[in-house]
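Known limitations

Files may contain more than one protein. Parsers should not assume a single record per file. Below, a two-record file is shown to illustrate correct handling: read the sequence, read the token line, then continue until end of file.
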Amino acid sequence: MSDQTAIEAHAEPGEGHSPAAWAAVIIMLVAIAAGTLFFWLDIPALVWISAAFVPVGALVGWGLAKAGYGVNGPKYTPKEH
């Protein structure tokens, strides 16, 4: 087994290191943090608006993955660690 083959055989399947995954996680993280803050400040309307952004983040990630920015997409270029 050559070195290149060994590297390819041991390569990670992506682990979500793509623009689509990062965008989805950041949107959902900000929504949850804002919702927590608004819950603490006792502003129920903004808590529910923040909660509505969690599925929006998932849809943005899905849409970017379908647009080619996912792990196996043509517009994604993996970076070396």
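...continuing to the second record:
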Amino acid sequence: MMDFGLDKLALIGAVALVVIGPEKLPRVARTVGALFGKAQRYVSDVKAEVNRSIELEELKKMKTQFEDAARNVEDTVRSEVNSASAAFDNEWASATAGLDGDGTNSGSSSIGYEPLASPPPYYTHPKKNWRLKRGATPQWYKQRNGVRTKALSGAARVARFRPKAGAGSSTGR
């Protein structure tokens, strides 16, 4: 940018006063100031947009780096787990080699080891209503003492205990 000192600004102001005139100078100065302010806001908006795009690109780069690191860790863990499971399988196979039931190990027959039978595909309970909870109080006791065993809605209760229309009520005049 150009370097404007106090003497140069005074010279520009004097030339503007002579050329424009004293009547129009305040209005022109306001217009120039407003345009200068709009230009500054536009430049600051452009700078902010450029900074946001640069930060976005940096975040994308960082995201790809983290994803690569996560993949590397996942691959390392998976390979370690696979090698450990393979070593375990080898040790298990060598430890259980004599227990296959081919008659080489007589200790299993002396203990009474028999393989478990496979369970049926589904289990049915012998009682018909096994999911219904039964109370400890017998039904005959509840009926004798008038304990409600079935819930009634409010409308059903009103209908049950409403007096009959023909039984001595004089509703008509």
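Parsers that stop after the first record will miss the second one. For reference, the second record is described as follows. Residues 6-92 form one domain.
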